[in-house]
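Query structure, 256 tokens:
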């Protein structure tokens, strides 16, 4: 396994945000992480990526126990995450923003520049590389956040709602981008409320509710799991048809 959490728990005073989560992510997997707002999804990402220390349990990535590791060190190991609310350097160009990610592992400026240009091309922003990040529309902000993460040369990407706030065409475009990234050999764990996209993209889906992992399985298994239907999807979504072919079908549908 590339990533494994064991009895992972995070408390904030008397609030248990993540409780005894056992999760294994294999090399080159594309896994969805869904659940109601406040279920603990982003907190789980924060613990895995080193932004929060676990209250109990442990995180192992590539056979390294990450207890006590700082986020930048974890990123250099090949585990990188994006944020639900984009965190850009608005006074810098798109290229310079992306170079920040590249410089995580590339100390030579010329090589970092090449990596940044490659990452922008992967998300479709290469023609805007010299533009300043301030004032970017939400779709481009999400792409730039993804490009910066890609520039760190990750083995596993944790993507926190990269489709949040996007229009249906933008969701389809982002889904295609994620699919290409995964096909290139990079593992992905995807938090998303656009459930139809998750069902079409992901090989497996994990479901959190009140901080606990209540289900883990293939998209058809999750779609028909009574616990997931009652906690999150609802009966109407459970009766929807599967996505057809490589497209996303009803991508515009979402569950909140």
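Result returned for the query:
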């Amino acid at each position: 396994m590339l990533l494994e959490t064991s009895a992972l728990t995070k408390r904030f005073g008397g609030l248990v945000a993540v409780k005894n989560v056992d999760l294994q992510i294999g090399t080159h997997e594309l896994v969805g992480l869904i659940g109601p707002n406040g279920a603990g999804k982003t907190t789980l990402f924060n613990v895995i990526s080193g932004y929060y220390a676990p209250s109990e349990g442990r995180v192992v990535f590539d056979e390294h126990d990450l207890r006590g590791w700082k986020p930048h060190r974890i990123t250099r190991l090949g585990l990188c995450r994006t944020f639900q609310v984009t965190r850009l350097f608005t006074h810098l160009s798109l290229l310079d923003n992306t170079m920040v990610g590249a410089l995580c592992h590339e100390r030579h400026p010329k090589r970092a520049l090449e990596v940044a240009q490659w990452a922008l091309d992967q998300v479709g922003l290469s023609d805007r590389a010299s533009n300043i990040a301030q004032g970017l529309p939400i779709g481009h902000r999400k792409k730039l956040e993804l490009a910066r993460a890609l520039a760190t040369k990750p083995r596993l990407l944790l993507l926190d709602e990269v489709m949040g706030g996007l229009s249906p065409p933008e969701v389809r475009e982002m889904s295609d981008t994620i699919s290409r990234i995964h096909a290139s050999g990079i593992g992905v764990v995807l938090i998303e409320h656009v459930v139809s996209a998750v069902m079409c993209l992901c090989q497996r889906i994990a479901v959190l509710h009140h901080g606990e992992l209540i289900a883990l399985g293939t998209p058809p298994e999750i779609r028909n799991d009574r616990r997931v239907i009652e906690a999150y999807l609802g009966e109407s979504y459970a009766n929807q048809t599967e996505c057809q072919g490589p497209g996303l079908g009803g991508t515009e549908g979402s569950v909140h």
